[in-house]
Amino acid sequence: MPNNILKIFKKIEHINGLYEDVPDLSRRSAILIPVLCPRIDFENKILNILNWKLIFTIRSGHLKEHAGEVSFPGGRIDHGESPQQTALREANEEIALEPSKILSTIKLNDSFARSGYHIVPFCSLFIDDKNLRCNEDEVSFIVPLSIQELLNINSWSEERSIMQLKRRVWHFPMNIKNVGDIDIWGATGNILKDFLIRIETLL
User: Fold this and answer.
1) Cα–Cα distance between 49 and 201 in angstroms, integer?
2) Which Pfam families match (predicted)?
3) What is the end-to-end Cα distance of the chain in Å, rounded?
C-alpha cells in the first residue's frame, strides 16, 4: 500500500481553505468530490497530485433544482444517515462509484446553496474509474478534470446577496469537449475553491 499517497491526501483535510459563514438552514445535504489517482501512479507510488482528477457531473435538465448545472454527486441527508454516508450513497447512485473502491475520505469546509441547503462536503480518493456511469435520471454527463486543468482556469469571483447575506461566489468557466461551455460556480465553485486553496498550499 503506497502510504505516501494516502498520507498526502489525508493531509489536505488539515490545511486551511475557503471558510464560509453558513446561515442556519434546516435543509441539509452532503456532496462528494471523487478524486481519481491514476492506478499506475498509485501502484508505482508516484506522487503526481497535478495529475489527479476531480469527477464532476452535469445535472440532468429535468431536475427541479439546479437542472443542467455542474456539480458534485450529492443530495439531501436522509433520516438516520450521517453526512458522510449520504455523500457516499449519492456518489454510488449518481455515477456508480462503489464505496468499496474508495481508499480514503476527508472532509472540507461546509458551504450552502441558493436553494436553501446547508452543504457538508467530503472528498474521496479512488484509483479505478472504468465502471463509472451516469444515472440518467440525475446525471447527463460525467466530467473528469485534472487538478492541473482546474488550476489553469482563469477563475474569478463576485459578491452576491443570498438569503440576506453578502457572499463571495467563485466562477470557474471553461469549455469541455462534447459538453460545451460550462461554469463551475455557486456552492460547487466555492467548494472547489476551498479544495484548490488547500492543494496550492500543499504544493
Assistant:
1) 12
2) NUDIX
3) 23
pLDDT for 67? 47
Q: What is the 3-state secondary structure (H, E, C) of the chain?
A: CCHHHHHHHHHHHHCCCCCCCCCCCCEEEEEEEEEECCHHHHHCCCCCHHHCEEEEEEECCCCCCCCCCEECCEEECCCCCCHHHHHHHHHHHHHCCCHHHEEEEEECCCEECCCCEEEEEEEEEECCCCCCCCCCCCEEEEEEEEHHHHHHCCCEEEEEEECCEEEEEEEEEEEECCCEEEEECHHHHHHHHHHHHHHHHHC
pLDDT tens digits along 33-52: 999 999 999 999 999 999 99
**Mean pLDDT along residues 93-98:** 96
pLDDT at residue 179, rounded to an integer: 81
Chain-centroid distance of CA 55 in Å reads 7
Decide: 72 and 87 in contact? Cβ < 8 Å. no
pTM listed for this prediction:
0.94
The more confidently predicted of residues 1 and 58 is 58
